[in-house]
Description:
The protein is an all-alpha fold. It is 64% helix and 2% strand. It folds into two domains: 214 residues, Glycerol uptake facilitator protein; 33 residues, no CATH class. It is globular, with a radius of gyration of 19 Å.
Amino acid sequence: MVxxxxxxxxxxxxxxxxxxxxxxxxxxxxxxxxxxxxxAVLLIYSGWGKRSGAHMNPAVTITFLNLNRIxxxxxxxYIVFQFIGGFxxxxxxxxxxxxxxxxxSVNYVVTIPGSQGIWAALIIEFLMSIMLITVVLVSSNYxxxxxxxxxxxxxxxxxxxxxxxxxxxxxxxxxxxxxxxxNSHEWNGWWIYFVGPVLGMLSGxxxxxxxxxxxxxxxxxxxxxxxxxxxxxxxxxDVFGPEELLKKNLNTWNPYD
Length: 257
């Protein structure tokens, strides 16, 4: 959220040179997308990102909980601190750069429906969310591309911000929307950014589960993996299941390392 606020200020505030140098809103959104895509990649591949799984999004955590990839207690605290972290990120910039972040063209980087209306915003948030989580889950289970999953996320964020932002504000993250809404006191269409991302990612999780079962002939032994601090061929995930099957599967390939 600090990154989002800073880059929107730099790109969209009229007192700074970028806004006046680049008249095209599409090009400015592309630059913003590049900035946020790179931010996401750096966070995902950072030590902290590898340690936690780099959710940063309640919709992702809820989907992982539904797939039995995180326990309920951990999921609860992940979500709590996703909201707290998002709020604090915007609050810090509000405190330091109030005259810039509160300017109408920046407006605390709020996510609100575009001119197409709330239903268009809801649909685009749902579609972006289902595509993102499906790519994450499927790509992370192909050994040859698993290590590039974070880069795929970055590329998708670039595309989403460039083309999706005019329709929905491009949130796909309830915590990200609430962070801006609390600080700006602007809650226009806030429910869209809960319903769309959560339903979209849960739907993507359902599709992933169906694909996983098909790929593994109905064997879902290694689909249930909890985030943990213990090493089981991976510093992040602790895989559950019969030991003999785990050895057979995990010695063949390791999609989570």
